[in-house]
Amino acid sequence: MTSLRKLGSSDLQVFPLALGGNVFGWTADEAQSFAVLDAYIAAGGNFIDTADGYSAWVPGNEGGESETVIGKWLAGRSDRADVVVATKVSTHPSYKGLAPANIKAAAEASLRRLGTDHIDLYYTHFDDETVPVEEIITALDQLVKEGKVREIAASNISPERLQASLDFSEREGLARYVALQPHYNLVSRDTYEGELQDTAARAGLAAVPYFALASGFLTGKYRPGATVESARAESVSQYRDSERGQKVLAALDKVAQEHDAQIATVALAWLASRPTVAAPIASARTVEQLPALVAVADLSLTEQQLAELTEASA
What we know:
With 314 residues, the chain is an alpha/beta fold. It has helices at residues 30-42, 65-75, 100-114, 133-145, 159-172, 195-203, 233-240, 243-259, 263-272, 290-294, 303-312, and strands at residues 5-6, 13-14, 18-20, 47-49, 84-89, 91-92, 95-96, 119-124, 149-155, 177-181, 206-207, 281-282. Strand 9, helix 5 and strand 10 form a beta-alpha-beta unit.
């Protein structure tokens, strides 16, 4: 049994890989999504990440598709108490931004779609700088007081606004962010390292990085000269064609060979070892893609291997 990790200062205990729900209702239909969710739980997983905006970008979708799929899946299970469900507010086309009334309405809509009476971890998906942090925290605190949300977290926020939010929570004795969801991976380190990471570390926040595999680049399947049919092929070319991208792949190939492990597993293990990181997020469209992701729970890299990867990605 894999040991779960404590999420920051909260009581939530999570598997060291969060399953990304962005593909549910998009590139994975309901049956595929259920199969992936079942396989993830069977592998010891318990941490599911979604957002109310997934997948409004798909023609014909209106947002909330992922939550709806997860809700239908949860409805058939008796272990809701053992599953940590994280969702986010601010990007659903009908509930944009972080005005207090919007946070309240969006949370109610998420609860309905998820078919549950509480959200375990509720993120502000993108900060809304038109709203004072005091109003955002007060609205989130209200949801916690009502029992609709267990813990709150932030994503895509500046270090200054994050610190101001934490200070207000402390001063007023209100719900306080326990986690942060930054864009962070081996080929995108400056999106988190530095002031944002320092702020999280000082406050004891757990980081739950998204784009942990750089849109699939860190699985090793996108290489110069290789053609991959994927909804994400376009977005990985920036990594594939860069010198850093090539150095990182070479280092990943070497370490993966030393452990007889998948490249994706090694990339996730490096991320999981970084200061503040509790659980990287990665999504699987099919059950076949899942083993390489959940294997991060059992892969320990040596100090030397971690250093090689860190150097290659510098």
